[in-house]
Specification:
Length: 132
């Protein structure tokens, strides 16, 4: 790959809504199509829905049946999207953002550049398009 490639950056954050702890990034992945991007959220929601309380489970299935269509349309318009489920004191947020993946410069040896040691991930998810 020698040119930038369009795709999506996906993140999953959890947050204690009582404020006792800071939000935590649980996972982040790349995707190269809208179906691949929202499929990750769909798989996660189907997997956890049996363990959710009735309200959270209903929100999960509402997104799977209706919200996913709106999410897919937004992604195809290159809009960022979030899906949020709250279970007890925990808020889980999946965020999908359109991005350009830049090709990595070839490097000799196995040593990473010094700048990789100072990278700090963002502290909380932010996206304009939300489905609760």
């Amino acid at each position: 790959m020698d040119k930038p490639r369009r795709g999506y950056w996906r993140e999953c954050w959890t947050e204690d809504i009582t404020g006792r702890t800071q939000p935590a990034l649980r996972a982040s992945f790349d995707a190269y199509s809208a179906p691949q991007a929202d499929g990750w959220v769909a798989i996660a929601l189907r997997t956890i829905s049996p363990a959710l309380d009735p309200d959270a489970s209903q929100k999960a299935w509402d997104w799977l049946y209706d919200g996913r269509i709106a999410t897919r349309r937004a992604l195809l318009r290159a809009e960022a999207c979030t899906v949020t489920i709250t279970q007890a004191d925990t808020r889980i947020t999946w965020t999908i953002r359109p991005v350009l993946f830049l090709p990595l410069a070839h490097r000799q040896g196995i040593e990473l550049p010094a700048c990789t040691q100072v990278f700090k991930p963002r502290t909380a998810p932010q996206a304009p398009h939300t489905h609760d």
